[in-house]
Every structure is written in C-alpha cells, then in structure tokens.
Amino acid sequence: MPEPQQPDARSAPLLDPENAVRCDTEGEAASGPSPQASEAPPPATKGSGSAALVFVLWNTMMGSTLLVMPSCFRESGWLLGLVLAVLCAGVSQYTCGVVLLHGMRLPDPQAEVADLAHAYLGRYGWGATLFASVGVCFGAACAMHGYLATSLNDLLVDSREQGGLGLASAWTSLSPNPKGVAAALVLALLLPLCSLRSMALLARLNGVGIACLFLILAFIGASAVANGLAPEALAPASLAQPSLKVLGTLALSFFIHSIAITIFRAAATPAHNARNLGAAYALVLLTYVSVGVSANLCPPLGDPASLESAAARNSFLSVRQPPSLATPLLVARFAVVLQCVTVYPVLVYAIRTQTFCALVYRDPYPGALPVLGLNAIVLCATAAVSIFGLHIADVLRFTGAFAALVMVYAVPAGVQWAELAAAARSSRRARAARLALTGGLLC
Questions:
Q1: For residues 151 and 369, what is the distance between their CA atoms, to the nearest angstrom?
Q2: Which residues of 139-159 are buried (b: 16+ CB within 10 A; e: fewer)?
Q3: What are 35's strand-pairing partners?
Q4: Cβ distance 75 to 308 under 8 Å?
Q5: CA 131 to chain CA centroid, nearest Å
C-alpha cells in the first residue's frame, strides 16, 4: 500500500504547516502541549519504557477537567456518566490510535499531527488542526485561570473550619467583587512568568505539578470516606438524567491527540505503542470515574444537590465540606494554586509559539514587545472569563465539543477514509469502520 507523500515546497500552503507545529528556540522544541489539558508532559527521554510512557500520558490527560468531574457526573447521573465516560474513552483511544499509527508512518521523522492533517487533507485540514489546537489551549488556560482565582478567593474568604485562612473581612473590603480582584491579581502575577523566552524553567517545575495532582486526588478520596454513602445517591434520579451535555467535557478529558506522536516517538519499543496507549486510557478512565462516582455516592455533607451548585461547577474544592476535612482541604487548595502556576504559563507559551511560528514571525520569541502584547491579550481574555462569572464547566464543555469535532473525529476520520479509499478496500470490516467514523463525525 503506497504511503502518502509529504507535499513539496511548491505545493505547500502560504502558512507553512511544519512551522506551525514545530518552532525551535534555544534548542528546544516548542510544539504545543495537550489541551487537557491539560498539562504539558515532561519530555520523555529517548528509549522511554512502557511504564514511563503510560505515566506521561496519564499526567498529560489529567488536569483541567478533574475538579469539575463530580459536577458533570451529577448533571448526567453518576451511572449514565460512567457509561458515557467509557464510550468517550473508547472512541478517543481508537481515533488517537489512528493518528498515532499513520503519523508515525510519515516520511518526516519529526512530523506532528498538523503535518498528518496536511498530508492527507491538505491546507484546510492543516488550518483546522492548528485552529483547534490553539483553541483548546485557550480553553484549558481559561480553566486554569479560573481554578487559580477560585482557589485564591476560597483560601482568603473561607473560615479556618472550611479550609480557608479566615481573612474574609479584609479581603472583601477591597472590592464588592473579590473573585474579580483575585482574577486580576492572578493576571499580574503570571504575566512575567508567561513572558519567559523558553520553557526551561517551566519544565523544571513540572514535578511540582505532579505532586500537587496526587494531593488533590488524595483529598477527593478523603472526602468520600469522611462523608460516607448518601441514600439519595441510589435514587433513580441520581443514576441517570436526560442530559448529554457532559459529552463535551468528557471529550476534552480524554484528549491527547495533538501530542501523541511526540510522546510515542521516544518509545523504546514502538511495537508496544498500541498496548501502552490502551493502558494509559484505562488508567485515565479509572481516575475520572473514581472521582466522579465517589463524589456522587459520597457527596459533601451527604447532600447530592451540592454538586449542582455554581461552586461545584467551578471546582469541587469550593463545595462545603465537614470541619474534620479543614486541613486536607486547605492543603488541596494550595496544591491547586501551585499546579495552576506551573501549568498556565505552559499553555500560554503553546498559544504564543503556534501563533507566532505559523502566522507572523516564524519565531516563538520575536522580541519582548510582541510577546508581552500577545500574552497580555491572552491573559486579559482568560481573566475576563473569571471576572464575568462564566463557569469553568461550561467553558470546558464547549472547548471539548470543538476539539472533539476537529481532532477526535474529523481529522482521524479523514485520514482513515483516505487510507481505506487508497487501498480500494471493500471488505465488510472496512465499510463498518468508515460508517462508524462518519457517524461519529456527524454526531
């Protein structure tokens, strides 16, 4: 079967797709991180074993949606949420496998997902992939900014019995909108960190973010143990609701397509790529399901309705907890602050790199003034989401829906369809695969 050839310079689009996804500075690759969320992975060293690759994938997919997962499972019903999470994980794993399989076959050993889209779908596929990648990074940055502002506000406003520092009177005297002040304060604190020339310092801080993630998971588990099983959690209304709005959030939760090729390029045993990808998705699914189901079966203060509140739609750590959890909650909130400080600048760096390299300068750091200007625009936009009270769960829902349309369905479906058509396959299995992919795209 002939493999698709990379277009030469004469047929390349005006905006060079290669520069859109790879633009080096100081010897470092600057391709954008996964929107998941989340969280740019520590670079896997060449010859990484299966366990290391699985851990990097897990750490990358966890993050921006974790603290709204209890609210999502409450909205759909925890049993239906579990079923939808399994379906989304299965679809995402399959389509990510398509991207990985065909991306690794491209002639260019440094090819990324945008190169794959360009090779099979042309300049429009490349443009859509680039736009989706920047959009997802922006959505994840909005979530990180919101988590950081919310956690800072909760730490200062809540009493010590509720995991805060008990500074409500002093903090609220600054403004009638203390959360807005927190969002503006976050902007001022993060702008210098987001304007660094390279990611060297941010990469060194990645270990702090991983430790913070484990602290957050530990608190969610402690909350379930302390609150105990709520009888209402087994009522039919708590099992399933006629709502599929959570699909957008779940799609983003299992999104790794934009950097899967980059991560697996360092695999010591490429023959195990499919197995390792499946193991990583299974681990991510188990984590999300454990958080969503446990929080709904054992809700804070035994009240499942608390997960429907505006606080829960911004962060599970904003929901009132028993006084016995005050200290763990305080630690978890500080962990969220530290994690966001390490992750948010990476997401802004990815937006800056892809925007400048693809559209303007072909350089991720063309100078202090352009970098400061673009960063100020991005940070002000993400701060506005928090100041105007948009719920993090809603931002992630629409971001995830957009990302899924382009990166989880459209690009893998187009690549698979082109492969099947080029091979002139007419088997029942091939027709079923094309039908499933097309149906997913239309849905």
A1: 31
A2: bbbbbbbbbbbbbbbbbbbbe
A3: 38
A4: yes
A5: 16
- Read off the tokens for 287: 């984590």
pLDDT tens-place string over residues 95-121: 999 989 888 888 877 677 888 888 888
Amino acid at 90: G
* pTM for the model: 0.76
The token duo for 151 is 């956690």
Question: What is the Cα gyration radius of the chain?
Answer: 22
| pLDDT tens per residue across span 14-61 | 334 334 334 443 333 333 333 333 444 444 444 567 887 887 788 778
- Quick check: 342 and 209 in contact, CB under 8 A? yes
CA-to-CA separations, 412 to 30, 101, 344, in angstroms, rounded: 23, 10, 28
> Comparing C-alpha atoms, which of 155, 140, 145 is closest to residue 180?
145
Please list, residue by residue across 264-278, b when 16 or more beta carbons sit within 10 angstroms of its beta carbon and e when fewer do: bbbbeeeeebeebbb
Residues 6+ apart with CB under 8 A from 351: 32, 134, 137, 138, 141, 374, 378
**Cα–Cα distance between 338 and 202 in angstroms, integer?**
12
pLDDT at 32 (0 to 100): 37
Whole-angstrom Cα distance, residue 18 to residue 360?
A: 14
Instruction: Report the alpha-carbon distance of residue 198 to residue 148 in Å, rounded.
Output: 23
CA nearest to 52, candidates 276, 308, 230, 326: 276
Give Cβ neighbours of residue 138 (< 8 Å, ≥ 6 apart).
347, 351, 378, 381, 382, 399
> Using an 8 Å Cβ cutoff, are 380 and 183 in contact?
no
In order of 91, 108, 118, the CA distances from 421 in angstroms are 22, 23, 17
State how far the Cα of 218 lies from the Cα of 239, in Å rounded to an integer: 25
Are 260 and 21 in contact, with CB atoms under 8 Å apart? no
Stated as kind and residue range, the H or E segment containing 27 is none
- Helical ranges in 298-325 per DSSP H: 310-314
Residue 13: DSSP 8-state: -
- SS3 of residue 418 by DSSP: helix
Residues 6+ apart with CB under 8 A from 235: none
Query: Token pair for residue 362?
Result: 């072909």
Distance CA 255, CA 275 (A): 17
- Is residue 90 within 8 A of residue 379, CB to CB? The reply is no
Per the listing, tokens 């999502």 go with 72
> Residue 26 has what DSSP assignment?
T
427 φ, ψ (degrees, to nearest 5): -70, 160
